């Protein structure tokens, strides 16, 4: 299958893209939430994370991604663990959560060691957050996929991670590996900071955190995925998406809060406008 470089796609992508209709069965806005997911979202173990639910809409997002409680789900670049904690609670009883860490084989020795440490501690870390046995969770690097893992995942989630794939120029290899991990018909769900459709190329190179929705769709299609549909669950029309210092100007980072008045203005805007997209692995 022909691979196109992500940088080239971003450079040539149109400002907008006519997307196909939602596939049959794709959850519509307001679709019923799985009771087990609703219970996980409301779990007291999430008390420190729940304040951000108003911005991140985890119930609507995971329902749109069709994540079920008996699935094997990979979370790419788990980061601070906000979604890991929820997914751990939701999936541990009957499903499986796997932390998927980036391929650091070409990085410095220090970075490789850091990645190995993150992989090693992920199962116990999530187990502590979710109050579940560590054996319910696993993790590995995409640079060292264990035997037997290919073709076993129902879902892979990229939660605000696509800009880092672009910025590090690792999208081609990482997406190819993720595709191999999915079962036939398996899906990737993407939540990503959304630039305006007419944002200049220089602004959407990944360094600002924002990407154009059309570019993300085109990249995924070029890597063997069919576009299933979009949700506006994580949209925020108050975000102008043109911050000179990038998305980190806004909450929760609030790097742009130089004084109390600015902090209040940014908090009133809330977190970034985000696209929520679903893709199916093509055979």
Q: What class would the helix/strand composition place it in?
A: alpha/beta
**Second rung of CATH, namely the architecture:** 3-Layer(aba) Sandwich
Domain count, please report it: 1
CATH class: Alpha Beta
- Main sheet: which strands, in order across? 3-2-1-4-5-7-6
SSE topology string: HHHHEHEHEEHHEHEHE
Q: Which descriptor suits the 3D outline?
A: globular
Helix content: 25-40%
What is the radius of gyration? 18 Å
Model regions low in confidence, pLDDT < 50 over at least 5 residues: 1-27
**How far apart are the first and last residues' alpha carbons, in Å?**
11 Å
Number of helices: 10
Count the E strands: 7
Overall mean pLDDT stands at: 90
Looking at CATH, the homologous superfamily is Vaccinia Virus protein VP39
Strand percent estimate: 15-25%
Largest sheet: 7 strands, mixed
| CATH topology description | Rossmann fold
Keywords: Methyltransferase, Signal, Transferase
InterPro entries: S-AdoMet-dep_MeTrfase_Alr7345 (IPR016980), SAM-dependent_MTases_sf (IPR029063)
Organism: Novosphingobium olei
Signal peptide: 1-23
Give an overview in words:
The chain is built from 10 helices and 7 strands. It has 283 residues and is of the alpha/beta class. The chain has one domain: 3-Layer(aba) Sandwich (Rossmann fold), CATH 3.40.50.150. A 7-stranded mixed β-sheet has the order 3-2-1-4-5-7-6, sandwiched between helices. Mean pLDDT is 90; it is low at 1-27. Keywords: Methyltransferase, Signal, Transferase. One of its GO terms (biological process) is methylation. GO terms for molecular function: methyltransferase activity. Residues 1-23 form the signal peptide.
């Amino acid at each position: 299958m022909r691979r196109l470089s992500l940088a080239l796609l971003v450079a040539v992508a149109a400002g907008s893209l006519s997307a196909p209709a939602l596939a049959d069965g794709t959850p519509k806005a307001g679709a019923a939430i799985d009771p087990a997911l609703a219970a996980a979202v409301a779990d007291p173990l999430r008390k420190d994370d729940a304040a951000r639910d108003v911005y991140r809409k985890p119930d609507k997002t995971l329902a749109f991604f069709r994540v079920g409680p008996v699935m094997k789900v990979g979370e790419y670049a788990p980061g601070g663990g906000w979604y890991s904690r929820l997914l751990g609670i939701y999936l541990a009883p009957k499903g499986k959560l796997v932390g998927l860490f980036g391929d650091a084989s070409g990085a410095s020795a220090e970075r490789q060691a850091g990645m190995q440490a993150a992989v090693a501690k992920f199962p116990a870390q999530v187990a502590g957050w979710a109050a579940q046995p560590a054996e319910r969770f696993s993790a590995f690097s995409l640079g060292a996929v264990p035997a037997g893992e290919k073709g076993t995942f129902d879902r892979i989630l990229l939660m605000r991670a696509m800009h880092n794939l672009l910025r590090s120029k690792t999208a081609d290899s990482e997406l190819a590996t993720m595709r191999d991990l999915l079962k036939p018909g398996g899906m990737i769900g993407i939540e990503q900071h959304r630039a305006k459709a007419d944002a200049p190329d220089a602004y959407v190179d990944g360094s600002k955190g924002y990407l154009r929705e059309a570019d993300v769709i085109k990249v995924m299609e070029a890597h063997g995925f069919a576009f299933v549909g979009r949700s506006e669950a994580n949209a925020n029309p108050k975000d102008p998406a043109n911050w000179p210092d990038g998305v980190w100007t806004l909450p929760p980072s609030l790097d742009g809060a130089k004084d109390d008045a600015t902090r209040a203005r940014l908090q009133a805007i809330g977190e970034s406008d985000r696209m929520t997209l679903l893709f199916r692995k093509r055979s």
